[in-house]
Specification:
RNA binding, about 290 residues, alpha+beta, Structural Genomics Hypothetical 15.5 Kd Protein In mrcA-pckA Intergenic Region, Chain A, 15 strands, isomerase, Pseudouridine synthase, S4_RNA-bd_sf, globular, single chain, 3-stranded antiparallel beta sheet, 10-stranded mixed beta sheet, PsdUridine_synth_cat_dom_sf
Length: about 290
Amino acid sequence: MTNDTTTTWMIPPQADGWRLDKALELLLPGVGLRGRRRLVESGLATVNGRLLPAGYRVRAGQTVAIVPQHRERRFGPADVPVVLMAGDYGLLNKPSGLHSAALAQGGGESVEALLPDIFSGRPTFLLSRLDSLTTGLLPAAFLAEAAAAYRDMEEAGEVDKTYLAVGHGEPAATYFRCDGELDAADRKKTRVLDRATIDSLRMTEVEALETRGGVTLFRCTIKKGARHQIRTHLAWAGHPLVGDPLYGFGEGERLYLHCAGIDCPAFAAVCDAPWSLGEAVEIVSL
């Protein structure tokens, strides 16, 4: 049942004992697992009027309510500046705290929802995603054909994405490669398996730029990338990122991870980080 403010739905017998985030797929078939979890974690889904975790086991007959988001907007088009226009492509600078993709039924503000205002109603396709806490370059295409061409470039290994990150500790070598195979299937956290990947598109090349106060500024280069790839790989290598609430210690109010450059045959763009190594040093010394 749907009214002007809330959508309600009764758990059917077939979903008895399912996790809440899985059961929501029956109600929201177009929303992926990550989106459904974001909906629950944002407090927009209740079971019998109670806020429950995504892993809660629902029972047949319980009532799920989806409440539309009614929050004051924190972000507008001016908060997502255009860094570069290059033919059929545009590069945006995403701030921290803003999701990349929109989620049906609410779940947080997103760059995707702002695209019509940023590009004056021009049809736009996001080409990648950054975590809500990650800042930096977000590429977009203005034609479906251009989006497909970018995907082909990624698959061919012709896209280089450069990130700046601050991690704990000092590495033994200036240059190293994180090639542990990633498992991101049906998990809130990506994990590194006990074997090396043969997929060069999922490796992370790392250069230590400077160590100070027990933390190191890294330059990380990836190709296509995977969910949480740099965060997971650096934590696996013994250098969890400063401010990472999932793979690190969650200190401070920001994640020190920034997409600083994207280089491919169609365009090349760079974008300065909104933070410094000195700021990270201050955070970990508190």
